Amino acid sequence: MISSCREDVDSSALEVYDGPMNMAINIHLVKSDSAIIRSDIKAPKQLEFANGNLEFPEGIEIEIYEKDGSLSTTIRADRGYYLKQQNTFKGEGDVQVNNLIKDQQLQSEELFWDQIKKIIYTKKFVRIQNGGDFSYGSEFEANETFTTYKLKNMRDSEIELKDDGI
User: Does residue 7 belong to any structural domain of this protein?
Assistant: First the structure.
């Protein structure tokens, strides 16, 4: 006869926890260089995971500044993520980018901001408004301030004609 002091253990109790390790409310992260603000990130809720990734389940707002310190671009998303390995932010849901200097807007369901390469990009469908002109397509890439961009798979566009047009 063999006996043991060990009780049977429920294997589900031994599963590794992969949920958030920390939670913060109303976060505000300012990044600066030489005392000039470069970016300003705000979110009502932040979840931090063991691998360093962050989740912003209630939305995220990112403001990007020019070298002279003036606000040039805003990025807003319904949900946000920070992917530590890639040093990249990801926005999902209703994602909107506004270039305040050139009066350009972008709408998409997903967008990435690569802080190392200083670009924003997506392979998803986008709608770009540049004044009264609209462009639609996918495979979008721009500098992080959205002053210059490429739209590889353009589908349609609408161009506003002035009174003295054609």
Answer: no
SS3 30: strand
Query: Which pLDDT tens digit goes with each residue over 12-66?
Result: 666 787 888 999 999 999 998 888 889 999 999 999 999 999 999 999 999 999 8
pLDDT digits (tens, 9 = 90+) for 101-118: 999 999 999 999 999 999
Q: List C-alpha distances in Å: 58 to 29, 146, 147, 155.
A: 16, 24, 28, 32
Q: Please report, for the domain that includes residue 117, its CATH number.
A: 2.60.450.10
3-state secondary structure (DSSP) of residue 41? strand
Residue 122 lies in a domain: yes
Report yes or no on 13 lying in a domain: no
Domain assignment present for residue 94? The answer is yes
